[in-house]
Design brief:
With 353 residues, the chain is of the alpha/beta class. Helix 5 packs across helix 9 and helix 7 packs across helix 9.
């Protein structure tokens, strides 16, 4: 009999509760420890046999993964909410650890990819830039909300221009509102400086990646978008084909069918019912979807993708659907040339089209 052990970990900032099951599903032990790296290492160093470990994806997941991975046979960082078992019944640290261990033993957990060491630095810089850019947009929206809330039309970016701010602020009659607006402008100036610095660091980091030389030739993909792609995807070999890559990017078409077969002459025959479509998949990486959709919007007015886009429009496809189709094509090309290590070939694209 194999000496496999399945460890479920319910992790928190202060403590970690673990439960160990054997191959038959019997509880071998359970314990509680501080969320301390040395205690975690000592715990797994003292275990014998083939150890499999799981815990939920969260703020501590990458840190725990790096600590535990060298000490055990398998680590699965999971999203157990996909399973009904994890959402049913009572809840406590010990119960959650037991459910995780049980799901791990049954092979019912879907792993969450944790990235590779060579792209981890870029991933952190991408997160920094994304957070600063999001804060920057939030403050810009708050500034416009002040004017719009008082019936003042403020389209475009003039409202943010340093030389025009005083002119716009004079449209507000209330002095307290103008003071609030001044604070938001000052916050915007600080965030704009941070965003420029974060962007410069991001561009410098991505140009050190081997994939940069391959992907920079794809129309619509600049250094920021390429940095997001490399930082998030890490390696293209996670996806066997574009059919697995599209759902991750939120570009997969969801279909629904029923009664797929009918009996004719005593034999099964596939029915001719049309397959119903239900839009794009809803479980996806939002940053990647934005990257490829914005790249499609940029590339739709430039060669070589302009001909492809115009052909879709000529076939009476709606512009928004044509841009999604172009985004799918750019994503497929990105994955293919990244895997092959070849640069983008516009002549081949036109020939295939």
């Amino acid at each position: 009999m194999t000496n496999d052990k399945y460890v479920g970990m319910d992790t928190h900032p202060a403590s970690i509760t673990t439960e160990v099951l054997n191959v038959n599903g019997r509880v071998v032990s359970w314990s509680r420890m501080e969320t301390d790296p040395e205690q975690i290492r000592d715990y797994f160093r003292g275990m014998s046999g083939t150890v499999h470990v799981t815990f939920e994806e969260g703020a501590q997941a990458a840190w725990l993964y790096e600590i535990i991975k060298p000490l055990v046979a398998e680590v699965i960082v999971c999203n157990p909410r996909d399973s009904k078992l994890s959402r049913s019944g009572n809840k406590s640290d010990k119960i959650d650890a037991h459910k995780l261990a049980s799901l791990l033993r049954m092979g019912e957990l879907k792993p969450v990819y944790q990235g590779e060491a060579r792209t981890r630095g870029l991933k952190e810089v991408v997160r920094s830039y994304s957070a600063v850019a999001e804060d920057n947009r939030r403050v810009m929206n708050r500034i416009k909300a002040i004017y719009r809330g008082r019936g003042i039309v403020c389209k475009g970016t003039e409202v943010y221009h340093p030389q025009l701010r005083q002119q716009w602020a004079m449209m507000l009659a209330d002095g307290n509102t103008r003071n609030r607006l001044e604070l938001l402008y000052r916050e915007l100036d600080c965030l704009s400086c941070l965003r420029k610095a974060a962007r410069a660091e991001l561009v410098k980091k991505v140009r050190r990646q081997p994939a940069w030389k391959i992907l920079k030739g794809v129309p619509g993909l600049g250094p920021i978008r390429i940095a997001y792609i490399i930082g998030i995807v890490s390696t293209p070999f996670r996806f066997r084909t574009k059919r697995q890559f599209w759902p991750y990017c939120g570009l997969a078409v969801v279909t629904r069918t029923s009664s797929d077969y009918e009996v004719v002459g005593g034999k099964f025959r596939r029915s001719k019912k049309p397959i119903g479509t239900r839009g794009l998949n809803r479980n996806y990486n939002r940053d990647l979807k934005y990257v490829f959709k914005s790249a499609a919007h940029h590339a739709s007015s430039r060669e070589p993708f302009k001909q492809y886009y115009d052909r879709l429009i000529a076939n009476k496809m709606k512009p928004e659907l044509a841009r999604v189709t172009l985004a799918r094509k750019i994503a497929a090309i990105t994955l293919a040339i990244w895997k092959k290590g070849e640069g983008f070939d516009a002549d081949r694209l036109i020939q295939e089209a």
